[in-house]
Design a protein that fits this description.
11 strands, about 180 residues, single chain, 1 helix, elongated, Lipocalin, mainly beta
């Protein structure tokens, strides 16, 4: 039997992302032999569960909040070579559909970055609902998707003299989300 979000304990209402207990991160190949990992420190979003059990979700990420723990690289990521943070300050995600997969989900949606919107599918592991610590229930999710940076106009190649490139095309986006039911 396929479970709905409500069957998993996600009751009707707005489940807002708790940015203090959540992470929005990414990883990309560097020199084709290792990975650079980073994260965004300023983001928000919510999952809305309607009375009829249908759901919507949306999120915003301030791309100028990127950190890879390397200030020089972070400054470069904010430029027109990458995020164009001044011109396009937000990356957004809006869910277009939820497909239960046992206790987990695939969430289809539209991801926008640098003024380009493309479809993505998040593979979401539902971690459960906890009564919380006095402020109401909290739910946990881990999600991942892989996107092509070129699909979003991030087409800087930075080729290496002997072949290959400084950065890979495939970006793994990883979300570790704790969301609280709003009163």
């Amino acid at each position: 039997m396929t479970k709905s979000l409500a069957d998993l304990g996600l009751t009707t209402g707005t489940w807002a992302i708790d940015p203090v207990h959540s992470t929005v991160g990414f990883a990309v190949r560097h020199l084709m032999v290792s990975k650079v990992r980073g994260r965004f420190t300023d983001f928000s979003g919510a999952l809305e569960i309607a009375e009829d059990g249908t759901a919507t979700a949306h999120a915003e990420i301030r791309v100028d909040s990127v950190t890879t723990d390397n200030p020089q690289r972070d400054a470069h990521l904010r430029t027109a070579d990458f995020f164009s943070a001044e011109q396009f300050p937000l990356a957004t995600f809006t869910a277009t559909g939820f497909r239960p997969q046992g206790d987990d989900f695939e969430v289809d949606g539209e991801f926008s970055l640098r003024g380009v919107t493309a479809p993505v599918t998040l593979k979401v592991e539902f971690l459960g609902v906890n009564p919380g610590m006095g402020n109401g229930p909290v739910a946990g999710f881990e999600a991942q998707t892989v996107v092509s940076r070129r699909d979003f106009g991030l087409d800087i190649d930075m080729p290496l003299p002997d072949g290959g490139a400084v950065i890979g095309d495939k970006i793994t986006l990883t979300l570790e989300i704790e969301a609280g039911l709003q009163a």
